[in-house]
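Figure S7 source data.
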Amino acid sequence: MAMLAPRPSILSVEPYVGGESKLPGVNRIIKLSSNEGAFGPPPGAVAAIQRMATEAHRYPDGGSKALREAIGARFGLDPARIVCGNGSDEILGLLILAYGGEGTEIVMSAHGFLMYDITGRWAGCRIIKVPERDLTADVDGLIAACGPRTKLVFLANPNNPTGSILPQAEVDRLRAALRSDIMLVLDSAYAEYVDRPDYDAGARLVDATGNTVMTRTFSKIFGLGGMRVGWGYAPAEVVDVLNRVRGPFNVNAAAMEAAVAALAEPGWVEKNVAHNAEWRLKVTEALTATGIKVWPSQGNFVLADFGTADRAKAADAHLKSRGLIVRMMGAYGLPSCLRITIGTAEENGLLTEALGAFMAGIR
Ligand code: PMP
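Tokens for the predicted 4'-deoxy-4'-aminopyridoxal-5'-phosphate complex:
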């Protein structure tokens, strides 16, 4: 029996493997591998999910109206120009499906977020990865890489996994230099953690220029990664396209209610931002003091470079033996690095202590 073959581009993609959440023989796991936010879900969101359990037989609101209105009110945006998705991954993928595809090109930074590459490849796009300067996107390189087939340029700002950020003037320069019919996707998944006064998560550029989209998520600062809610803010024409290609009920009812409740949680963002700023610095300083190179980060994680892939692997094994799970960066082309999420004060303490012991052991 011959199996039906999928489109060839599908087989160029490896199935996505998420980070581990269990370790054999280890009772207490400390998971610092997926940038999930230090404090768990907001209490109001937990209550909303519980409340929705008895409504599980009902289809959700297919247009995510209440959520779009809550997002619009929070961020000062027109709800009609917002599209919600099953994580911002879905919005990114829909943009690629709608505007990319066979015969088109996607331009991204060499260590940009992996999903642009994965979704772009299975959609049949050619992916052009532009070398970086100090693990930061190079605007001149991105501009130069665009050709007649380029449909989309993706920029995560701040970027995962590097933590690097482009100054706002550079983002503006990128948009101004791109052909107006190229879609610039500003992926602002980590926007809340940025402490640069000039930073704009993207709404201003979306409003000022035609083909610009901003994507955001409830998976990071709002602590709802497991609920899968993200959103995009885009010109009306792009919203219309996304509404044609998205599934009719692409955000589930509990996720929608949880996201609305998360937006309403008093002091949540402020508390998380303050904690992250404090501990991002403390973790950076503590690891640097042990001889590990830590790249400056504007996200809720740091990228720690151990110099060689073997040493990064050994550090990872050492952490695992203590129940600490971080993310190896081989799949991102950074095999000498581990990406470490900022956790609670206790978790961060255990992490820095464990890596201190590891580094002391190899001296
Ligand atoms: N963009 C970036 C830069 C990310 O790091 C992530 C999460 N890893 C996403 C988008 C996707 O997030 P989600 O689908 O959970 O909204």
